[in-house]
Each structure stands twice: as structure tokens, then as C-alpha cells.
Design a protein that fits this description.
Number of helices of chain A: 14
Oligomer: homodimer
Largest sheet of chain A: 8 strands, mixed
CATH architecture of the largest domain in chain A: 3-Layer(aba) Sandwich
Radius of gyration of chain A: 22 Å
Number of domains of chain A: 2
CATH topology of the largest domain in chain A: Aspartate Aminotransferase, domain 2
Distance between the termini of chain A: 57 Å
Low-confidence stretches of chain A: 1-9
């Protein structure tokens, strides 16, 4: 076959050459929505985009000028594989807001916390290893675990977060099957997609179980500072240092376009993280790290987080009010922070099958199956209220109600026959 | 053991939990030099840092302001997993300078070309697969291949680049051993570390052999535009589209602190690259991509590349003059572009063992063993002339001569007995 024939189509001359892990890649349900989101007439309650318009550009302009004036040639040069030392020191203060004591030595800056989780997963996961996770769990994490050919075991999770009793049962079940658990992955605050927070009462129990069973905890906390009324309980990492790897991010409290996150890990794991990072991309961007460092040094970043909290609180209220008005019979979680509502549809309504109908009605959401590694979640869906205005959230949920009500009526009709 | 005891030391509670690939990580010979490089009294001819001071900051300031004025909220938001469409279109023009015709659809922006190579390696390399590479080859690539548990087979390379005859012999040898070749990795222009360029005469022969043997070529080209006198021959990708994945980078023609590179791949491979990238880090940084896009749109970027070419040409001349003056008996490559000289030491002198003595004399280089996956290269070393001033290059090579001459004298003395 000539090159001309090959170009421009998807015939693949290299099918016989891929590694086994290449088989794990598939177009995600969330990704398929990206093209929908970009159409202005659609109210997208799908993607988890922060409302970056609430960040004044003057704050960034000042950070840029300060950075270039003070250390312009360092900002555009290669940096160290562990990340900028000044920024690491500033992150210590950020983490202390959730009770975490740490040292700059144990922090690694990453290209978003997603890449931190990718590097960690590469360090720990062999094929068929088991990861314990909330049910439902973050779609991006499930994708990583799948890519490393690991299996996810979802642990029952309710309005107080992961159930300690269910965790013990899951561990016993996996061990009885002779499978190896590598870590417990959880998002303890305003979880994606459920919006629930692990209660203060359950935290020490989860820690105690994992310590007893010698299971590492990966605590992923991008939303913890975006609470509406009460600060969240202290981080798991605040209580236990050796058993917890903590992931943080600037994507939601500042802006995701910088791709800067961080990992706080026990020393031996941190050493391996740095080496894995150097192998994968030499070093994270000096430019974006130093921008954030100058922003933290000179801007009122705590006040900016308060601004974001206010924006998301208002939008959460708008979303719950619209749910109450248009879909009063559906169960929804009622988050105390973060970006998401998790909705339970009437029995028999399939959120994935319904999505094209919703898009036709100019509203988008994320189907529940995206958040399970085991094919469940058909009658669930995630609504993200962080990006649209309160008015558009109301319009979107009204449109969604039309679609759901039509589905429910159809089901009733068929049931009646 | 208590948490307090664990913190601050390197005892590892999780030794039993790591994946097999975690064993592949070790502190590289180049990395160990980073602490040395930072001491101002040491002339470092070690790391491959571009001389970013030759880039006027006004050009970046204009790019920043244009970007934020035109699309500030997009620049700090999540972007697509394939990278910014405008930048991809601009990269097409950049690649056309080396004869490459391409479409925006087949380009993927990555977090430096290092991460492009990491993602590609993840798509293709299973344990014990074979990668063919120049001998010597880029240390960062060898680290990636090792991390994916692949084996590297070095192909004999001389002053005209990789030998086609040796390539055929290596392929025959590996096939006879029943091992599977996944791709040929090469840096055809001003290679790291050797400085040599694959001749125009050999390029079609390498392409023909790989096509006949159905071996994918990964063409890594960070230095091609940094020629001193004559432009390099057309890229392999300019001739063959389906059999070549092309890696490019802004690290050497603009600045590495942005961490922006790109991959041009056949459609099926490109699709998998995008999915792998989304899994690994969701998307590359919109902020750094759009900075570069504005720079390319409004600055005289070709003139800036000419400036860099002039800087490196002058430094190469200074390095070769100093070699001629202080180490006239040693063989060195004489590059026509790029950053590196590759030096052959007298038989019996070990560059790795000699490094601490060199550092004591306040000069640093990279030992030759770093650039081989098979433990060879003991009497080789790489000198990087891109970062120090011509005066410091001369001082550094003079110091190096003292160290080498002392080693040679010692060897002669022992040989005489």
C-alpha cells in the first residue's frame, strides 16, 4: 500500500507492533462530549471546567512581570525534576490549611495532579493488581488504572463518603480471591462525581483499616478548599504521613491552563516519583511554576479562593433549586463544596442511551457509567455546575427534566402494557 | 514503626508494593551532575541547556500581552488533549523548513518532546522488546526505553550517522535471536551526544531498510534548525509518512521552560497518542502553548533562530579551538550544528572514574557510559558547549586537559613498569 493511500485514513500499518497496554485506550464518555460542549447553544453540565473568568487578569499580569523581572532566564530554562523549591515551600503553607505538616523535600511538583497520579500508578501497578476506589470514582483516575492494566474494586460509598465496613468487606473479598491490593484511591472532599465528603468520624477508621491491612492510601484533594460553609475535616495526610500519598492541584483554586499540581509522599516513594518524572518529561514547566509562585507571593490568593467559593456556592444553590423545581422526585446529592451533583434516575432510565436526546434538547451531562470500572451506573448521571451561569444552569436543568420526564413516561407506558 | 521514625529517612514501608517497572529507575549519570552545575566556580560542559539569555524578553512580554488580550480565559482553561489548533497549524510551517508536508490532524502537542517519546514508548514497548538506536544515543531516550523494560540494540554509527550496513546486520542479529524489534529511534541531525548528522546519501537507504523490514522509525529532531552553515538534508518524515513518527521541540529554538514539543504521526498512532496523553495528564498546558503561538505569530522567530545559530556556532568554534590547543591528540567529532562534541579518550582512561577529579579541577562533562544501554562508552565523554561563554569554554577545556593529561601520564607510568 502506498503512502498516499495510507495518509488521511485510519488504516493502521502498525497494528502488529503495539504493546499490550495500548489496548487499554478507548475514547472516554467524557471526551466524546467535548465537541458538544463547544457549541454555544448547548448548556453543558458535562465537563468539570472551573470558572476562570472569576480570576482577575491583573493578578496574572503582575505575576508575569514580577517573574520575568526577577528570574526571567530561570523561568524559561530547564528546571529540576522535583519542581521549583520556592513554589514547594509555598505549597507547604497551602497544605497547612488542611492540617498538613510537611517539608519541601517530600513534595514533587507535577504537570497537573493527573500526571502525579499517572506517575504513582506507574510505580505501583502491575497487570491485574487491584486498586480500591469509591463507587463512583473519578473518571480520569479510572482511565489511568485501566491503562496500567489494573482492576478497580469499588467500595460502597454513601453521603458520608466511603463506608469503613464496606472497605473491610472489599479487602477481605479481594484477599480471598488471591488478588493483590496496591492502594486505596479516594477523593475525600466534594468528590468527583458524587459531591460527597468523607466524614470526620470515618477518617480515622479508614486510616486504621489501611494501616492494619498495610494498604497505601492515595488522597486526591483538588476541591478541599472550595467549601461553601464549613472547612473540611483535616486531610488524611495530616494524621498519617507514611501511609498516605497526597495529591493537590492549582487547577481549581487558580487555573488549570498552567497544568501544575503536586504530590506529597513518603521519602522513598518521593525519590521514585522524581526519577519517574525525569524519565517521563525531564522536568515540569519552570515558566508555569514560577508564575504561580509569584502569584502566591504577591496576590491575595486566599481572597481569590473565597471569590471562587462564592461563585460555586451560588451555582450549587441554583442547581439544587432547579432540581427542586423541575425534577423534585429525583434523588440528588447535596454537596457542601466542589463542582458536582450526582443524580439517580428512575429505575430503567439509561443515562448513556438518553444522552443524544438530551443533546438534541441542548443540554449535556456525563453518564454515570463513566465513573465505574465495572459497567454499573446506568441510571446515574453527573451534573457539573461550575462553569455555566446560574441562569443557564436553570435552563439546562429544565431541558434535562423534559428529557427525563419523557423517558419516564415512555417507561410507564411500556410497563402498563 | 511510628510515623515520626519514618519521616525524614529513606526506610521504605512499601517495598513490597512496587510494580516491576519501578525497578528500572535509577539516578542517571547526568542527573547526578545537576548539583555540580549549580556551583558558579565550575565550568559545566555537562548539561544540555540552551543559552536562553540570547532570547530578548520583550518578545515574550509581547506574546504574553497579546495572548491575554485576545484569549486570556482560554489560555488558563483546560484545552484539548491533542493540543491547540492554531499552534498546530503554525508548527506545520516550522516543519516545512525541513521538507515536511503535514496536516494539523496528524500533529499532537506534548509536554516537551521527551513526553512525546514517553507516550510513544508506552504505546509500543512490552517487556524485552527491542529498540534499535544509534551508538551512542540520547540518555533521556535510553532512560525511557529502560523504564518500559525494553532492550536497546545500538547500531554502529560513524561521522555520517547510522551505518545502513550495520543496521541490516543488527536487524538480522536481533531477528535470529527471536527477539521483536518495535522501532528504530534516531536523532538524525547534530545528534545528542555525538554531534553527527545522518548524511543525505544514507537517509533513503535507512528508510528503505526499515520499510522492507517493517520497522517503524522514530525521528527525534530537536536540533535540526540549529545548523551552522548548511541546512540539514530533508527529514526522513519528508520522504516517508506512514513509516515515520517525527518528534519536534521548542526547547532549543525558543526555550525549554515552556515544555512544549510535538509529535507528527500516522493517523492510527496519532489517535492512540491523544488518548494516552489524555490519560497521562488530561491536556498539555494551554498557557504555554498559546504563549508560543503568539510568539510565532508576531515575533521574528526565524531571525531569533539565526541568533541562536550564531551563538552556538561561535561556541562550537571556541570549543574546537580549545580542543586543538589543549588536547590536540584526542579525537573529537566536528559538528555542523547543535550543542555537542563527542570526545574519545586515550585507551584505558575511564571518563566516569575521572569525573570527580575533573569536578575537583572545576570542570564538568557527561561520561560516555550514559549514552549506551549496554555498559560501553567508558573512554568517551560528551562536552556541551551551548551554555558557557566562549571564554569559559576555553577555561573549561584547559582544565579538562590537565585532568586527562594527568590520567594519561599515570597510565603510561604504570604501563612502563
Amino acid at each position: 500500500m502506498s503512502n498516499e493511500q495510507q495518509q488521511g485514513n485510519n488504516l493502521d500499518s502498525w497494528l502488529d507492533a503495539y504493546a499490550a497496554r495500548a489496548e487499554t485506550l478507548s475514547v472516554s464518555e467524557v471526551r466524546a462530549l467535548f465537541s458538544v460542549v463547544s457549541r454555544p447553544e448547548v448548556v453543558s453540565l458535562a465537563g468539570g471546567m472551573p470558572y476562570v473568568s472569576a480570576l482577575p487578569q491583573e493578578l496574572l499580569a503582575k505575576a508575569y512581570h514580577d517573574m520575568m523581572a526577577k528570574k526571567g532566564n530561570l523561568a524559561i530554562q530547564y528546571g529540576g525534576g522535583q519542581g521549583d523549591l520556592v513554589l514547594r515551600d509555598q505549597i507547604r503553607e497551602l497544605m497547612s490549611l488542611e492540617g498538613i505538616q510537611s517539608s519541601v523535600e517530600d513534595l514533587v511538583i507535577t504537570t497537573g495532579s493527573q500526571h502525579g497520579l499517572d506517575l504513582l500508578s506507574g510505580l505501583f501497578l502491575d497487570k491485574h493488581d487491584v486498586v480500591l476506589a469509591e463507587g463512583p470514582s473519578y473518571v480520569g483516575a479510572l482511565g489511568i488504572f485501566r491503562h496500567y492494566e489494573a482492576d478497580v474494586e469499588h467500595v460502597f460509598t454513601d453521603h458520608d463518603g466511603m463506608s469503613p465496613e464496606a472497605l473491610e468487606e472489599s479487602i477481605a473479598k479481594v484477599k480471598a480471591e488471591g488478588r493483590k491490593i496496591k492502594f486505596l484511591y479516594l477523593v475525600p472532599n466534594f468528590a468527583n462525581p458524587s459531591g460527597v465528603t468523607l466524614s470526620a468520624e470515618r477518617r480515622p477508621r479508614i486510616l486504621e483499616i489501611c494501616k492494619r491491612e498495610h494498604i497505601l492510601i492515595i488522597e486526591d484533594n483538588p476541591y478541599g478548599l472550595l467549601y461553601f460553609n464549613q472547612p473540611v475535616p483535616d486531610a488524611l495526610r495530616a494524621v498519617e504521613a507514611d501511609g498516605v500519598v497526597y495529591l493537590g492541584s492549582f487547577s481549581k483554586i487558580l487555573a488549570p491552563g498552567f497544568r501544575v499540581g503536586y504530590v506529597l509522599a513518603p521519602p522513598a516513594i518521593r525519590d521514585k516519583m522524581v526519577l519517574a518524572q525525569e524519565s517521563a518529561l525531564l522536568c515540569p514547566s519552570s515558566f508555569t511554576q514560577m508564575m504561580i509562585s509569584e502569584y502566591l507571593a504577591n496576590a491575595d490568593w486566599k481572597g481569590q479562593i473565597d471569590t471562587f467559593r462564592g461563585v460555586y456556592h451560588e451555582r450549587k444553590d441554583a442547581a439544587l433549586a432547579a432540581m427542586h423545581e423541575y425534577l423534585p422526585d429525583l434523588h440528588t446529592t447535596r454537596p457542601d463544596g466542589g463542582f458536582y451533583l450526582w443524580i439517580t434516575l428512575p429505575e430503567g432510565v439509561d443515562s448513556k442511551a438518553m444522552l443524544p436526546l438530551a443533546v438534541k434538547e441542548l443540554v449535556a451531562y456525563t453518564p454515570g457509567t463513566a465513573f465505574y470500572g465495572d459497567g454499573t451506573g446506568h441510571n446515574k448521571l453527573r451534573l457539573c455546575y461550575s462553569y455555566p451561569t446560574p441562569e443557564n444552569i436553570k435552563i439546562g436543568i429544565k431541558r434535562l427534566a423534559n428529557v427525563i420526564n419523557l423517558q419516564t413516561e415512555l417507561l410507564e407506558t411500556f410497563k402498563g402494557r
